[in-house]
């Protein structure tokens, strides 16, 4: 999903006070890890991932891996933090998608 500038700004503002719920260390990212992230995003829509200092991956490499191997959108990479967004399929978990679609 390609996001506009307004949509990205909205998602960044919503994620400003969030703490990362996933982190990447020396083991790096895998398909199994990515499946767990997708499960979490199905209920949250928005999440942060922290790249630890000893990780072999950079935040930009992680963002590229995530976008290449899933339907998750990366609205922002800042420092060692990657912001992830995926629209929820279940109506009871929709929180940010309504506003994101309105801004399109």
UniProtKB/TrEMBL annotation:
Key words, A-Z: RNA-binding
Keyword presence, RNA-binding: yes
The keyword RNA-binding is assigned to this record: yes
Transmembrane segment boundaries: none
Superkingdom of the organism of origin: Bacteria
InterPro entries recorded: RNA-binding_CRM, RNA-binding_domain, RNA-binding_YhbY, YhbY-like_sf
Domain CRM as annotated: residue spans: 1-97
Protein's UniProt name: RNA-binding protein YhbY (YhbY)
Organism field: Fructobacillus fructosus
């Amino acid at each position: 999903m390609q996001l506009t500038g307004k949509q990205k700004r909205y998602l960044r503002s919503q994620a400003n006070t969030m703490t990362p719920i996933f982190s990447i260390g020396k083991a790096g990212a895998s398909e199994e890890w990515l499946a767990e992230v997708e499960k979490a995003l199905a209920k949250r829509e928005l999440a942060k991932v922290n790249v630890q200092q000893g990780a072999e991956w950079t935040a930009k490499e992680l963002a590229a891996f995530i976008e290449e191997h899933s339907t998750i959108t990366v609205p922002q990479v800042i420092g060692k933090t990657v912001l992830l967004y995926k629209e929820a399929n279940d109506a009871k978990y929709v929180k940010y998608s309504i506003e994101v679609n309105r801004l399109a």
